[in-house]
Amino acid sequence: MRVSAKLPCLHDLPTVMSRFLHRCALLSFLLLSLAACAASPTRPAAPATPLLVVSIDGLRADALGRGDTPVLDRLARDGVHAEGMRPSYPVLTFPNHYTLATGLRPDHHGVVHNSMKDPQLGRFVVADAQAATVAGWWQAEPLWTTAERANLATAVWAWPGATAARDGILPRQRQAFDAKIPMHERIERVAGWVTAPQGPRPALVAMYFEMVDGAGHDHGPHAQQTRAAIREVDTAIGELLARLEQAGVVPNVVVVSDHGMADAPNLIAVEDMAAMEEAEVVSIGQVIGLAPREGHEATVRARLLGRRQRYECWEKPAIPARLHYGTHPRIPPIVCQMDEGWNALPRAMIERRDAAGVHNAGAHGYDPDLPSMRAVFLAHGPAFRKGTRLPVIDNVDVYPLLVRMLGLPLRQGDGDPATLAPVLASP
Q1: C-alpha to C-alpha distance for 216 and 58, rounded to whole angstroms
Q2: CA dist 427 to 100, 350, 422, Å?
Q3: In the chain, how many H helices and how many E strands?
Q4: Do residues 48 and 250 lie in contact, with contact meaning Cβ atoms separated by under 8 Å?
Q5: Beta-strand (E) ranges in 158-301?
Q6: CA-to-CA distance for 301 and 319, rounded, in angstroms?
Q7: Which residues contact residue 151 at a Cβ distance below 8 angstroms, ignoring those fewer than 6 apart?
Q8: CB atoms inside a 10 Å sphere around CB 320
Q9: What tens digit of pLDDT does each residue of 152-190 get?
Q10: Class of residue 15 by CB neighbours under 10 A (exposed 0-12, middle 13-18, buried 19+)
Q11: Average pLDDT over residues 279-297
């Protein structure tokens, strides 16, 4: 038999063997890589353009376009702007921020009030930073956790719920709420997260500003101090976007607020609604939660239920369906909704404030259909259709938009994905 290939000489054998072993190693590496890809779940590619979600606590929908918000006005004019955004009930900070992060009503995600009780977990109040780290209070998965599960890096500044780990998962970059951190440091650090030269840059950045809400409570929604706070936050957002642009980053921006703010100078003592020996007061302010004590159920119901001069009270099953509230076990047996402009506080608290001469001038927590409670929604960036105008939307409809922009699977929720689908440049 004739062989055309040249046989190697003995002195060529080391070179031949070296080439053979190199090819075997390369083949083994390729096979292992293919096996790893087959075994790993499909993960979305990190978006080239980061998604920046900014919340301005307490910013009314009608605060824009009045000379205090040139940055937000430009984003709204050149991007997407809703006439307003209807908050979920109750119209409070923690429940609505977690609605924006989960697409669920407070009745479904478990954060049913800024102050609440749970038979296993105890008591929750917004001032308790330690309680906010307990995952059991937050009964739905937020957007940043879903993104991290998909190996998308996230960064969250002070958003309610972001300090509670779910299955050990937290945002890769995070800062708990701290009102003492000056504005310039907040902007520097968030800009640093987005433009980091090493490590994965975040696909999702969520940032929270509290100044407008604080000024609105202290001075009222239309006071000069509140307008100054609005200007401060508007300027800060402009500085952040300028920093990102200098670094070559043009994000898709979504700006929201959790609720509006109303003038609220009027007070009544919660003890005038129900005596302390007759009912436990679970929550105060504008949405009052009461649990009648044993033996006093009929008395408390007779005194409270129905329409009263400054408020209206319902038993849980009778809360109006339009409020989407009343099924969660943390909601007290009786819920009273104060009329706009009125607050119910413990008598001792009212007396202390009287003595100090200090009372809040503004509040939220009122009926979500009131114009004063409407929140802000606007969006700007390469993903959005320019010059898009929308009517009033519901805040549960924001989450499906954010999920779609990150390329994540959409879970069943309370929002309608079709509401904001038309705002995208590419359907």
Answers
A1: 7
A2: 22, 54, 7
A3: 11, 21
A4: no
A5: 173-175, 204-209, 252-256, 262-263, 266-269, 279-283, 287-292
A6: 14
A7: 43
A8: 13
A9: 999 999 999 999 999 999 999 999 999 999 999 999 999
A10: exposed
A11: 98
Are 79 and 247 within 8 A, CB to CB? no
Task: Provide the CA 402 distance to its chain's centre, in angstroms.
Answer: 11
Give the tokens for residue 111: 């954060």
d(CA 350, CA 415): 39
Coil, helix or strand at residue 100:
helix
Q: Hey, which residues does 117 pair with through a beta bridge? A: 123
What value does the CA radius of gyration of the chain take, rounded to a whole number of Å? 27
| Residue type, position 108, single letter | H
Residues 160, 208 contacting (CB under 8 angstroms): yes
Q: What is the pLDDT of residues 329-365, one digit of tens each?
A: 999 999 999 999 999 999 999 999 999 998 899 999 9
Place of tokens 């002195």: 11
Model pTM greater than 0.85?
Answer: yes
Q: Are 54 and 254 in contact (CB under 8 A)?
A: yes
Q: Are 259 and 58 in contact (CB under 8 A)?
A: yes
Beta-bridge partners for 306: 313
The residue type at 286: Q
Nearest to 242 by CA among 178, 172, 194, 174: 194
Beta carbons within 8 Å of 133's beta carbon, 6+ residues apart? 163, 164, 165
Phi and psi for 80 in degrees, rounded to 5? -115, 135
155: alpha, beta or left? (left if phi > 0; alpha if psi -120 to 50): beta
Q: Which residue has the tokens 């957002």?
A: 237
DSSP track, 123-166:
EEETT-TTGGG-GGG--S--HHHHHHHTT--EEEES-TTTTS-B
**Can you name the residues that pair with 314 across neighbouring β-strands?**
335
Determine the Cα–Cα distance for residues 59 and 376; give it in Å rounded to an integer: 7
Reported as type and span, the H/E element at residue 244 is helix 224-246
Q: Identify whether the C-beta of residue 311 lies closer than 8 Å to the C-beta of residue 338.
A: yes
Q: Which amino acid is at 306?
A: G
